[in-house]
Amino acid sequence: MSPESCKAASDEERLLLKKISDLVRRSEKEYSVLYSSFLTPAEQCLISDETEFSGIVGFDGGYEDAERRMCRVCTDEFQRDEGAPLVLLCCEMSDRNADISHRDVLGSLMGLGIRREMIGDIMADGRTARFFCSKSVSEFIMQSLERIGKYKAVITIGDVSSLPPPKTEKRTINVSALRLDCICAEGFGLSRTKAQELIRKSLVSINWRTELSPSRVVSEGEKISARGRGKLIVGSVSGTSRKGRIFLEIYNYI
Predict the structure, then answer these.
(1) Could you say which of 12, 42, 73 is where a domain stops?
(2) What's the whole-model pTM score?
(3) Per-residue pLDDT tens digits for 73-83
């Protein structure tokens, strides 16, 4: 890790970068591809920005749109790679009227003493939930997780190819400019003042990187997340009004 990074990073960030540096050294010594635990999008950005790891690291969360992913460290293209040590588990509630949430699933896992970094993305929908976990804890979870929230659950190993695509709702919004604050306001149902407040409080990110400038111009295909408000994908401009306002297509995650 460079001296510049040490000065800029917090204690937690320095510890994370040290862990990745240790994985790099182990990868060289053992001549094999190694993986970290699951990382947040912000942690992935921190690692990606570190020049020391350029061309060495990648990320795998089990599927294309994964947010929480493991860092893959490969120091030589001919190294042995057994694949990311993760498992998809499926939970089916015995009660047909069950309606479980992401919080229910995470809370039940934390109740077993499972650390957050051992759990990847969680997808909860009605009486069914799916989540990725580290292979090292998968057997324990299958043996120990009997309930999610107040519902009895049956846990099985899932097939990644059967994962449904993320649910989004296409909308067309009317904005004065392709600024971050304008799109956040219309996209998340906020006043522009409130949107600017969230941005300045470091609660809004673009492609998982915190953005502090309300005037930042947003481009098609970028993902905007607002903590506590949701996530959306910026679509294309579909036209302009007579007064010069912009009609922009967006896709809100639901």
Answers:
(1) 73
(2) 0.82
(3) 999 999 989 99
Mean pLDDT (whole number) for 96-100: 92
Number of domains in the chain: 3
The SS3 assignment for 188 reads: helix
Query: The domain spanning residue 45 has which CATH number?
Result: 3.30.1370
Among the listed residues 82, 62, 35, the one whose alpha carbon sits nearest the alpha carbon of residue 131:
62
The two three-digit tokens of residue 145, written as one number? 């997780």
| pLDDT tens string 204-227 | 999 988 999 999 999 999 999 999
Burial class of residue 103, CB neighbours in 10 A (0-12, 13-18, 19+): exposed
Does residue 80 lie within any of the structural domains? no
Q: Is residue 81 part of a domain?
A: no
Tell me which residue range forms the domain holding 152: 86-162
Nearest in space to 122 (alpha carbons), one of 68, 74, 197: 68
pLDDT of residue 9: 61
CATH number for 186: 3.10.290.10
